[in-house]
Amino acid sequence: MNKLIKAEVFNNTDLTDNHFLIELTPLSDIIPFTPGQFYMLEASSSPDQLLKRPFSVLDYKKKRLSFLIKVKGKGTALLKNLSKGKIINIIGPLGNGYPPANDNEKLLVAAGGIGIASVFSLLRKYDNTVLFYGIKTKNELLLYEKLKDMSSELYISSDDGSIGEKGNVLKILKKYLLDRDSDNSKYRLYCCGPNIMYKNLAQTSFNSVLEIFISLEEIMACGIGACLGCAVKSNDSYKMVCKDGPVFNIKEIRYES
Amino acid sequence: MNLNIKIGNLSIKNPVMTASGTFGYGEEYSEFVDLNRLGAIVVKGLSIKASEGNPPPRIWETPCGMLNAIGLQNIGVEAFIKDKLPFLREFNTSVIVNFFGDTVDEFIRAAEYLSSEEGIDALEMNISCPNKQEGWISFGTDPQLTFKVVNNVRKVTNLPLIVKLSPNVTDITVMARAAVDSGADALSVINTITGMAIDIDSRRSRLANITGGLSGPAIKPVAIRMVWETFKSVNVPIIGMGGIMNGDDAIEFILAGASAIAVGTANFVNPTSSTDVLSRIETYMKKNNIDDINTLIGKLEC
Lengths: 257, 302
Fold this sequence. Notes:
The complex is a heterodimer.
Chain A: E1 4-16, E2 19-26, E3 38-41, E4 53-56, E5 59-61, E6 64-70, H1 74-80, E7 87-94, E8 106-112, H2 116-125, E9 130-135, H3 144-150, E10 153-158, E11 165-166, H4 169-179, E12 187-192, H5 195-202, E13 209-215, E14 231-234, E15 237-240, E16 247-249
Parallel strand pairs in A: 8-9, 8-12, 9-10, 10-11, 12-13
Antiparallel strand pairs in A: 1-2, 1-7, 2-6, 3-4, 3-7, 5-6, 13-16, 14-15
Chain B: E1 5-7, E2 10-12, E3 16-18, E4 40-46, E5 59-62, E6 65-68, H1 77-89, E7 94-99, H2 104-115, E8 122-126, H3 143-156, E9 161-164, H4 172-181, E10 186-189, E11 193-195, E12 198-199, E13 204-205, E14 212-215, H5 220-233, E15 238-241, H6 247-256, E16 260-263, H7 266-269, H8 273-287
Parallel strand pairs in B: 3-4, 3-16, 4-7, 7-8, 8-9, 9-10, 10-15, 15-16
Antiparallel strand pairs in B: 1-2, 5-6, 6-14, 11-14, 12-13
Helix pairs in contact in B: 2-3, 3-4, 4-5, 5-6, 6-8
């Protein structure tokens, strides 16, 4: 089984103006992925746009890999326009994934914006997950039906208050924990969202959350740990997001104040 | 069909190498590429002491290329010998170690250390990386500094010595002659071209280091031109590199005067680029009834 394979676009659907869901049928056997791992996707075979782009695996169902992508720049704009039947080169699964959760810890999953793409497959892997999903505004709520179906509890927040609780995802997470402060439950938190979310999380002390794991992203060239391009500052010099991550224990990452 | 090339005393089995900085220390690509097929692997640049490299962001894609300001992050010569070299020695490919220093003395110490080890087939001196921020000029943009550093390294090593030249100069032949006069057995032409990109919203450079090295197809025309100019000015083998994406590109470099070539950025685009390039060179030779790759070197008609 090879990590470099060809895949055919099975479906490519726009969910909003700048979010889309692309399903790829691998044309050879793939290595099963762990939630949190990613693939490098070829947006164009033209030399004008050289590098593949990294995306967390959203799901694997009916022998198809799916990716939930937000349009940010050139590469994602090209991927958005890939039509059905197009065959592209992809590399994966790459990176580490979220580590296995312990039985005695209740699993909390938090997603900020497009971070939902990274944590989604955790909902499939584990029963009894509590999902906190924060978005900017109602229009950016993605995959609601599936999320409701796959999580045991779902809490939504929006920055502008257009849906769910007004505020960010940390607000609803903290509220949940505060309400359960007198329980003796121990929690583990897996999350993916913007860096500001991680920075705030790192500065919060939790009584009952034993470990927090975050998924980072950085601009990548090789995706396999050779070029040293995707560096992130950790307590122990630089780590590579593609090889040492993308999932890290929050304590490993150094945040500038 | 003979693909053997000589670089000083080193005989490499075919002209395809992987460029320093684009192939790590070999391990990462070993699951994609049969390393035994390659003529040589040139490892990520090493210094006498480990270096942590530049803060992120370190890379930025540009039209037909990319900028990098990795900052020469490396594990240091000692850790390389102990932890990475044994793996490379398992393969039937030449191991070329790229190295650098901030001072002439550091170059000397690294060269000495590497030359005392078994399993290293040649050294490639990086005198041209534009990523260091110290403010002094890079060795490779001054012929006297080039002469001095190469000459000092030459004195402490018997290994085949390749000097990798910087393109960020007015006349590369001046640097080429300085390197050869001071004892280089071969020249690598070219390293990356210094470039920049700016985020117009934040008004900041896309790279934390501000500038970085441009690589990829965008630099190929400049690289070929410099190989040709160098070929006409010195008599040592040239390893051509700069934007080689496929075998046809490689042949261009060989016709311009390169005895061997290195595949770099292409590895990021397609992890099997290096062996794909080799296969295409073999096909080209068969198709054109060329028995010996050496008969193709510098055969640009003009």
